[in-house]
Amino acid sequence: METTQQAAGQQRPADQRRRELLEAADRVVLRDGPQASMNAIAAEAGITKPILYRHFGDKGGLYRALAKRHTDALLDALRAAVDAPAERRERVEATLDTYLAAIEARPQVYRFLMHPAEDTQPSEAGFDVGRHSAPLLRRLGEELAKVIYDRVDLGPGSEQLARVWGHGIVGMMHGAGDWWLSERPCSRAELVRCLADLLWGRLAAASDRAGGPGF
Amino acid sequence: METTQQAAGQQRPADQRRRELLEAADRVVLRDGPQASMNAIAAEAGITKPILYRHFGDKGGLYRALAKRHTDALLDALRAAVDAPAERRERVEATLDTYLAAIEARPQVYRFLMHPAEDTQPSEAGFDVGRHSAPLLRRLGEELAKVIYDRVDLGPGSEQLARVWGHGIVGMMHGAGDWWLSERPCSRAELVRCLADLLWGRLAAASDRAGGPGF
DNA sequence: TCTTGGGTGTTACTTGCGGTAACCGAAGTG
DNA sequence: CACTTCGGTTACCGCAAGTAACACCCAAGA
After folding, report:
1. What's the Å distance between residue A41 CA and nucleotide D15 C1'?
2. Closest partner CB to A115 (pick from B118, B152, B178)
């Protein structure tokens, strides 16, 4: 370790440091996926574990900080797509495509965001049923719900309907995207079309198969 | 290899033993959720770790065996719902409700199935991008795809469409269910109705909100 | 009979990771 | 100069996965 010969006392404001550490963590996650170890991250940052803990408390803290960056970025992109000046169908397709493009571009980051490597918290009483997987999905769902509520006229009970739909659609995107990413059964554009068709009620509109089942 | 049943010796055929171990593991998972430790499971079964490893190879093996049981059970219930003699809308609602009832009844098991506690496998080369979360969701998606393909007339390209829809709908169910389970914003029946409405194209049918979108 | 051998099970270990305590050394300031 | 105060380190704890090596029991086989 060379003694950092800083010219004058350029005391990096610790926020800067934090950002550097996050960059390093990012690189490691990009390489190792969600099971990146604290040791590995520290090494990548050129330092040792305790510093990470000083900055982020625990692994969960670091992961949360890291996830927030990516989530914010993704959300910005999605908002741009969903708020574009176009017909609803087009906006929906653009949003789906934006999401899929993102997870396609950096699958490791995506995996990290979706499965934040179970915290292992002692959980005290034990009935912590509520705290599930990805905060990312929750945020996406809520945001989408807001958009739906604001822009679509759904009549009475619209708030609840919008929230259910927000989370449902996000879940659909996630589930289909996860499957598509691992099997690549078709192009992104095709996937987008199929999903949009689903949302457009083609399932309800289709008739039963010929030679219909007695039951 | 003698197929002789040794009557006298109550030598449990090791399949029996395996089943007992799985029962014990089940109890522990039901209590501790997905982060149940091998030690805990062994203790619950009244034995020690190495025996578990003899029977299941590694933790992943045990988890896979355990997951298969629950997955099979859930799939049976879902198949019954989806194959009921009723209109499509009714069948869809029944299927959604069956799934939600299952995750509502045993959330810990559900969490376990969805997040099988990341295997931590070294993964050799490192680019194992494909292997994501829950095999349960994959199986559900494929099964649903089959049902859709068999029973709904979708015209050309129907196979791919059915597969996308299968995984998409399962994702929707999962996402909405996960959120609903943790926030309980409404009754199960309401949730089912909302989701079915979504699948029935109400999003496409609804008009833009009054005071239209300037942007 | 003794011995062999495949089941059952055990204790005791290694490895690796999250997390922490305690110490180090180079500023900056009276 | 002493004295704090950072940015940093080494060395450790606890715990969980996984393994090695040993111990017991009971059915044969010569």
Report:
1. 22
2. B118
